[in-house]
């Protein structure tokens, strides 16, 4: 299995990414949207109202090309990045959706912008410092550039772009 650092450096640098479960990905395909507040049972929600959702946003990982994993680990020692990368362990696999930042630029917020807003609002809500960006509002499926899947036992990810073909029909 690839490490969180290796996964970020090999696949995620330079883009905004949304990660989800296989079941939730099916819902995205059906609805045509990555929703701010998808219809999920309360038991499947991740521990209360996170900061980005409280803003009316969809959480996105933001790893600019200049991101340095070692510096991040030193600066943000109580991070939970390994819980999600390369996949969320409780799911056993994750779907990674690369977002076309030009298509959604008006609602896009970088990880640094979200952290600054969190501090300005003196919030105590959860978020992943520096690496959790956001899109304020739902994201149309047409803004998904690529879809990939990785899970237990995988040494690399699998392209799922063929499942996005319905996005052109919208």
Describe what you observe in this structure:
By secondary structure, this protein is of the alpha+beta class. The chain has one domain (4-169): Protein of unknown function DUF952 (ADP-ribosylation fold), CATH 3.20.170. The protein has six helices and nine strands, in the order αβαβαβααββαββββ. It has a seven-stranded antiparallel beta sheet. The radius of gyration is 15 Å and the shape is globular. The N and C termini lie far apart (37 Å). The model has no long low-confidence stretch (mean pLDDT 90).
**CATH topology type:** ADP-ribosylation fold
Mind telling me which CATH architecture this is? Alpha-Beta Barrel
Q: What string gives the helices and strands in order?
A: HEHEHEHHEEHEEEE
What's the number of helices?
A: 6
Which overall shape is indicated by the principal axes computed on the Cα atoms? globular
Distance from first to last alpha carbon: 37 Å
**What would CATH call the homologous superfamily?**
Protein of unknown function DUF952
Mean pLDDT: 90
As residue ranges, the low-confidence spans are none
**How many structurally independent domains?**
1
Order of strands, main sheet, comes to 5-6-3-1-4-8-9
- Secondary-structure-derived class: alpha+beta
Binned, the helix content reads 25-40%
Which CATH top level class fits?
Answer: Alpha Beta
């Amino acid at each position: 299995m690839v490490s969180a650092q290796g996964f970020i450096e090999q696949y995620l640098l330079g883009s905004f990414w949304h990660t989800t479960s296989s079941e939730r990905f099916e819902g995205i395909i059906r609805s045509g949207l990555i929703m701010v507040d998808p219809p999920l049972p309360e038991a499947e929600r991740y521990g209360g109202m996170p900061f980005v959702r409280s803003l009316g946003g969809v959480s996105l990982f933001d790893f600019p090309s200049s991101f340095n994993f070692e510096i991040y680990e030193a600066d943000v020692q109580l991070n939970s990045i390994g819980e999600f990368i390369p996949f969320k362990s409780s799911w056993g696999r994750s779907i990674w959706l690369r977002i076309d930042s030009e298509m959604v630029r008006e609602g896009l917020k970088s990880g640094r912008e979200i952290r600054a807003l969190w501090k300005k609002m003196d919030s105590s809500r959860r978020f992943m410092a520096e690496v959790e960006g956001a899109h304020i509002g739902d994201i149309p499926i047409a803004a998904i550039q690529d879809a990939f899947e990785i899970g237990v036992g995988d040494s690399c990810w699998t392209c799922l772009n063929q499942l996005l073909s319905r996005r052109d029909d919208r």
